[in-house]
Specification:
The protein contains nine helices and 15 strands. With 329 residues, it is α/β, with parallel strands linked by helices. Strands 3, 4, 5, 6, 7, 14 and 15 form a seven-stranded mixed β-sheet that branches. A six-stranded parallel β-sheet has the order 10-9-8-11-12-13. α4 (160-171) links the parallel β8 and β9 (175-180). It is globular and about 55 Å long. The chain starts with a strand and ends in a 9-residue tail after the last strand.
Length: 329
């Protein structure tokens, strides 16, 4: 099969297309013919090996030779212990806990990582869901305790997490402000944002407005600044950002909770079939629409990762594949 591989840390130019053997599923795994996979910032970080926490298990060379965690496709074969799926089923999921490998024509994954594909949507749309949508759900619903009437701000709202987060927050009756660069503001309005801010011209932390919940995807404002933008009793949830900034949030949390009555939280990504099922149902009901900026072929997947690294993506970038038929008999 064709796969996008790399053997050394670096920028997308270290990636190459190579013919590798089709993996064989273990008893609790399925073999999936990948029809689409989306690109996440985690792919870019693992590719570069930065921050260095991404080199755990692979200090000198990458632990995972094939990147790609968000996949959608059709099951080709199932292991002896698999109960939920059978060959021919169409599924999507986050396989970051299964050894990655989505930038390839075939990949093996444990059945609990996968969810039936939403009816009526393309494989490309389904591949845009897993990591971004689940992070938005866990950040808003679980950590942020989102409620109707909340004033919510999403910093870095123009990517996958933000576009899913805006739509989910609006469904729950929140008033949502999206912060990103000027080129993404019209798109933020189109998915439901009540207010939009261009971070190059306006500082949400200096506006004097206060929010019940801040979901931060980029971590480009200081801890002091985001605390200032929270109401008493409010919650700040950090989904992404530089490692020093993450550590500052964790260290400041106890004192902030005691003195200011404000919660500072860092979200740890937890792939979850039940949460994927929530999004499946919302998308099937037409209440949420995945936002896809660009589509690339597997041969051009390195360009997709490079484009993500530029920070200009509106929603998600998806790699589309046409798997070759293999004989499993």
């Amino acid at each position: 099969m064709k796969a996008l591989v790399y053997d050394t840390y670096g920028l997308p130019d270290v990636l190459r297309i190579e013919e590798v053997e089709i993996p064989q599923p273990k008893d609790n795994e399925v073999l999936l013919a990948v029809h689409a996979t989306s690109v996440n910032s985690w792919d870019f970080d693992l590719l570069r090996g930065k921050p260095y926490v991404n080199r755990i298990g692979g200090l000198r060379k990458p632990r995972y030779r094939i990147l790609g965690a968000d996949v959608a496709g059709r099951i080709v074969a199932v292991g002896a212990a698999v109960k939920r799926f059978r060959p021919g089923d169409e599924v999507f999921g986050d396989i970051s806990g299964c050894g990655w490998g989505g930038f390839a024509e075939y990949v093996c994954a444990r059945e609990e990582a996968l969810t039936p594909k939403p009816a009526g949507v393309s494989f490309e749309q389904a591949a845009a869901i897993p990591q971004a949508a689940v992070l938005a759900l866990q950040g808003l619903r679980d950590t942020g305790k989102l409620r109707k009437g909340y004033q919510v701000l999403i910093n870095g709202a123009g990517g996958g997490v933000g576009t899913f987060g805006i739509q989910y927050a609006k469904l729950l009756g929140a008033e949502v402000t999206g912060v990103d660069n000027a080129g993404k503001l019209d798109m933020l309005r189109s998915v439901g944002a009540d207010h939009v801010l261009d971070y190059t011209k306006e500082d949400f932390a200096a506006s004097g407005l206060r929010y019940d919940l801040i979901l931060d995807v980029v971590g480009n404002r200081s801890v002091t600044a985001v605390k200032r933008a929270l109401r008493s009793g409010g919650t700040y949830v950090m989904v992404g950002g530089p490692l020093p900034r993450i550590l500052q949030t964790l260290l400041s949390a106890p004192l902030t909770a005691w003195l200011d009555k404000k919660r500072m939280r860092v979200l740890v990504h937890k792939p979850n079939h039940d949460d994927q099922l929530v999004w499946k149902e919302l998308i099937e009901a037409g209440q949420v629409v995945p936002v896809i900026d660009r589509r690339y072929s597997l041969n051009d997947a390195a360009q997709a990762i490079s484009y993500l690294g530029e920070g200009r993506v509106k929603g998600k970038v998806v790699v589309c594949l046409e798997p070759r038929i293999v004989d499993r008999d």
